[in-house]
Design goal:
Dual-sp_phosphatase_cat-dom; alpha/beta; 12 helices; protein phosphatase; Severin; Protein-Tyrosine Phosphatase, Chain A; globular; 7-stranded mixed sheet; 386 residues; 6-stranded mixed sheet; single chain
């Protein structure tokens, strides 16, 4: 990953060092602490990550992969930083190496640590990266992972239109909400469940998130888009089957447990829906300025740039799927469309460079990685089944 540079805020605020090393893009992981110092000189992307074991980085990893791939495609160089370049920024680079280079968490961590000795993801990030390793290496699902459920929600109140798939710890029909869009991932199917009161933006982002699952986890299953109140009969049966397998309580399938279509509501989601609605109804007042030179207090509704990248990197005919605002009910992308042909690709030997301080020279990491093979994905011709 020779286009990725890693460091802290001391370098992020030094224009000369960034320019001297050919940096074209900056990924700022701590928008509430570090502003976008030089917006006229570099292309910025900002995340709002707390260095806490409970912080969710899983939901933004595939967006970060998209961004790194976009910089690579442009033949640019991206400087990834948090405050000290210890935990948040290093975790994102480690995750990318696991996917791009096919490395294990341990190998990717060791490689980054050789480049930047203070690299040390917190325990919560390390656990999430170990789970990420299983997904991006397409490990067989364990019994506890047969059912995954995500809800589309703002990753942070600082950026309420950066909508991400947040994984639910306790997936079940009772976790569905008529206001939202949800992804239910089973071993043989992915469902996008769209509530009756769901905004089309949430549905669009659910489609984009599924396209990332297909790309980065090499998933080869049909994708169904279903609307609340018009679910096919086998949807609830399949859902409950895996909920029961995951639960030690032996839950029973009952109509009363499904809720009333259009009236499903989970109070825990209220804050996220409120933040989202404020953002799409004319803007919002961010908790912190996004730029020292441009103190924004009211941001207009605009398309989130992360969403644009999701559509750009949607593979083959998944791009049509992502762009479609709504599919006709009961139409879905079949196995023949989502089958992934895997072509072996030998990766170039690459390196990550580390900025050691704002004033000193740059120390390079070990000059090479052992070559490894990575499967690239392409999709078969389109097929829509009625």
């Amino acid at each position: 990953a020779e286009h990725i540079y890693l460091g802290g805020d001391a370098v992020a605020r030094d224009r000369d060092i960034l320019k001297k090393n050919g940096i074209t893009h900056v990924l700022n992981c701590v928008g509430f602490v570090c502003p976008e110092y030089f917006k006229s000189d570099f292309v910025y992307r900002t995340l709002w990550l707390q260095d806490s074991p409970t912080e969710d980085i899983t939901s933004i990893l595939y967006d970060v992969f998209d961004y790194f791939e976009d910089v690579k495609e442009q033949k640019g160089r991206v400087f990834v930083h948090c405050c000290q370049g210890v935990s948040r920024s290093t975790s994102l680079v480690i995750a990318y190496l696991m996917w791009r280079e096919g490395q294990s968490f341990e190998d990717a961590f060791q490689y980054v640590k050789e480049a930047r000795g203070i690299a040390d993801p917190n325990m919560g990030f390390a656990c999430q990266l170990l789970q990420c390793q299983k997904r991006v290496h397409a490990f067989p699902l364990s019994p506890s992972s047969l059912l995954r459920m995500y809800r589309i929600a703002p990753h942070s109140p600082y950026d309420p239109l950066h909508l991400v798939p947040k994984m639910l710890n306790d997936p079940s029909p009772s976790a569905l909400d008529s206001r939202g869009a949800f992804i239910i991932q089973l071993p043989s199917t992915i469902y996008i469940w769209v509530g009756k009161s769901c905004d089309v933006i949430l549905e669009r982002e659910a489609r984009g998130a599924v396209s990332q699952i297909v790309r980065y986890e090499r998933v080869q299953v049909p994708v169904h888009v279903i609307t609340e109140g018009a679910e096919p009969p086998n949807f609830w049966d399949n859902f409950f089957k895996f909920v029961i397998q995951k639960s030690a309580n032996g839950l029973k399938h009952s109509e009363s447990s499904l809720g009333v279509p259009g009236e499903r509501k989970v109070n825990l989601y209220d804050v996220d829906f409120e933040i989202f609605q404020k953002a799409i109804q004319g803007g919002f007042v961010p908790p912190a300025s996004s730029s020292e030179a441009d103190h924004e207090t009211h941001l207009p509704v605009r398309e989130n740039s992360w969403s644009t990248l999701r559509r750009k990197f949607a593979s083959g005919h998944m791009k049509d799927f992502v762009l479609s605002p709504r599919l006709v009910l009961n139409r879905y992308y079949s196995d023949s469309m989502l089958n992934i042909a895997r072509d072996s690709m030998v990766l170039n030997r690459s390196h990550i460079s580390e900025f050691t301080s704002a004033a000193s020279s740059i120390l390079s990491s070990p000059s090479s990685l052992s070559s490894s093979s990575l499967s690239s994905s392409s999709l078969s011709p389109p097929y829509l089944s009625p």
